Amino acid sequence: MTLPHLKNRNVANFEGARCACHVPFGHRDYYKVTLCKNKATITYAEKVVHINKPAVIFTEPGTPYAWDSKEPLLKSYRCVFNEAFAQKNNRALLNFSVFQPGKQKIIFIEEEQLPKLEGYFKDIRAILATNYSFAEEKVFALIQLIIYEVLPKCPEVIDGKSLKKDSLSNRFFKKLEDHFSLLDDDTPLLYKTPSDYSKMLAVHPNHLNRVLKKSTGKTTSILISERVIEKANEFLTHSEWNISQISYALGFENTSYFNQFYKKQTGTTPGQSRLKNV
Fold it and tell me: Whose CB has fewer CB within 10 Å in the chain, the N or C terminal residue?
């Protein structure tokens, strides 16, 4: 069942409690918070995760994913919201680690937590089905309560203090994800070097490198390269593009350079990698 958007505002939506057992792979343009009660398999970017107990799943725009369950119907509650809604209250939702790039997105929960979490999702559904006063604020608060309920199960939490301390790191990852989420055959990768990102962030390349090395243990170049490989693998596994099209989208001057880069990073060629996933 899909309930209507908030009146006159395309900011939040609700889906549940039963939906199709198979959702095909694709990119999504919304944030989603999902309570899944079935046994299912989730393909999230390059990762395949088997759900064998209740879990809450957090999905960001631009990240491809798919659901598959052998059960007739997928029992789930899902709240969907867009960027405008996520930016409310000084980006309070996006400050949580579950919405940060590279952080844990699938949080397994205990059976005793289910009634409380289901209650939150049902409250969201009820609010969105009416012309409730301060509906957006109430839905926003309920999403925060859902996150707080699962945070003890999540090993990494970003609070206001640490977010401020590592703001350059977070801004870098935000720029990185924003740029990679736009890639297609008409919009190839334009920002490929540490210098490109340091210019966008208005800092010296060496300073950016030091901050990232301290917060992640990796250099700017390594982080960019890893994201290129991750995106390449997404294209190889889940698109019908040929190697030349993928090479162009990722900003390589020719396919030969892309093949050399990919093999150096992974030990195999793009073509061999694609065959493994057929």
Answer: C
List alpha helices for 166-254, DSSP H: 167-181, 194-201, 205-216, 220-238, 243-249
**84-94 burial, b if ≥16 CB within 10 A, otherwise e?**
ebbeeeeebbb
Q: How many CB atoms lie within 10 A of CB 9?
A: 12
Distance CA 257, CA 264 (A): 11
| Cα gap 183→186, rounded to integer Å | 8
Structure-model confidence comparison of residues 14 and 140, the more confident one: 140
- Average pLDDT (192-214) is 92
pTM: 0.55
Check if the beta carbon of residue 5 is closer than 8 Å to that of residue 13.
yes
Smallest CA-to-CA distance from 78 within 169, 15, 146 is with: 15
Domains and CATH numbers, the chain: 2-153 (2.60.120.280), 166-276 (1.10.10.60)
